[in-house]
Write a structure and sequence with these properties.
Structural class: mainly alpha
Largest sheet: none
Number of strands: 0
Oligomer: single chain
Shape: elongated
Length: 105
Amino acid sequence: MVTRTLRAQAIRLLARREYARAELESRLGGGGADLAEVGNILDDLGAQGLLSDQRFAQAVVSQKAGRYSRRSIAGGLKAKGVASSDIDSALREADLDDDAALRTL
């Protein structure tokens, strides 16, 4: 029963926006839930394509592009627990212009 409730909570959160795995793990495990159980649920959601750090990184980069530097965006993603490879890939795909971000300041 607890697993079903945690899974439903995770799906509700993911329906609103993308989450990094570590961020969602923290949200679900914060209520005293078994971290192994939370990990299994997140593994399952990842296998189903519902949870993706790569997609989360792309969404954050898309949202912050033009207003923040690559370094700032990368630091924020790293703080959320996103792997460096996912961060680099999202930044490379976005082709950010740090000079343009500086000009907006």
